[in-house]
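Chapter review. Work through the record for Arylamine N-acetyltransferase before attempting the end-of-chapter questions.
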Amino acid sequence: MSAPDTTATTVPTDNGDTSDFVFDVDAYLDRIGAERPAAVNYEALCYLQERHMMTVPFETLDLILKNFPSVRDEPLYDKIVNQRRGGGCGELNTAFALLLRRLGYPVTLLGARILHNGKHAFRGQYHGHLVLRVDLDQPYLVDVGFRWASRKPLELRRPGVQSDPHGDYQLFFTADGDVEMVHNGVLRWRAETHPREVDDFDAALWYLWSSPHAPANTQLWASIVTPDGRISMFNRVLTEYENGERKSSRVLDDDAEFLTTFEKLYGIRLGEVPDLPATTEGV
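Structure tokens for Arylamine N-acetyltransferase:
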């Protein structure tokens, strides 16, 4: 099945109305350094997911800078493609869903909540995370916006361990029909299995942006996948992982070094270092 050519077309918004917003598929593919797939299949999905994770960083700058994030089509496209930014989990996964749909993939948004912050278990807010269900020969779960996400799609109905370059993953269905993801023995998130629309995530975004109890708006997270692992920043702590192991970790105390390093790793130029809490331990 060939992917439909939807480059530079007028697309429907999430509420079904017609807008003048033009989603340029080729520009988005160029942003992630990917060629247009010749077919809509699992192999192409793996390729697109990996390219997205290696080029579009997870980053929470907007929350730190008090800019309200959006999961709507046009601002997402502008932020990721035109501004060459990254975003939070909801932004990255929603943006990836926009691309996949225009390439012909059947995609469903699923609401989720984080259950581990990298240091200890906790109960994140409902719809504080978002994952994608992509239905091909079977249903797959795709996540391009989470620090501990798999590099390849996970088979939703497959029992047992699914080995991935980012570790070992297992999916478990709960008694009430949700699905839980365990990564390297750690329960990371729980997702609903019924479809959601982007409007359903507005309340969680508002909480993350405004609540004094939400750490995301007072601390900086940034992360990008590399060929052998991942490079993450938590506030001023830069941590590099290789083949699943922590390779190095250090604090970027010098402002000039912080700004240079952030731009080099994540492709984002900052005028000054945001006001960040003192931290010595990375994630």
